[in-house]
Design goal:
Blueprint lengths: L24 H16 L3 H25 L4 H6 L2 H10 L10
């Protein structure tokens, strides 16, 4: 299969995620993205990681506040918006701090 053989690509088929021997369009896009960011030496990803770490810290603090108030995040996610807002306000928390 000319052009679709997994060994035709520069990465030797490591992006053939379903291991069917054929690189589909999505797998080729991943390979292309990997190669261009590798060649460009794109350091923007480090900035994204810093933002992610900050989000995790903030999420942990919000999760701790929910637990201290005796609320379960999963149960809150099942509630409609008005019920969730009321439950958070009753617990003394600002509903605008939480994104469900």
């Amino acid at each position: 299969m000319l052009g679709n053989d997994i060994y035709d690509g520069p990465t030797g088929g490591i992006f053939d995620l379903n291991r069917d021997g054929v690189m589909d369009a999505g797998e080729r896009a991943l390979e292309y993205d990997f190669m261009t960011s590798f060649i460009d030496g794109n350091d923007d990803e480090d900035d994204d990681l810093d933002d992610f770490e900050l989000d995790v810290i903030q999420d942990d603090e919000l999760q701790d506040a929910l637990e201290e108030a005796g609320l379960d995040e999963f149960e809150l996610s099942l509630m409609d918006e008005d019920e969730r807002r009321e439950a958070l306000e009753d617990a003394g928390l600002d509903p605008d701090d939480y994104d469900f």
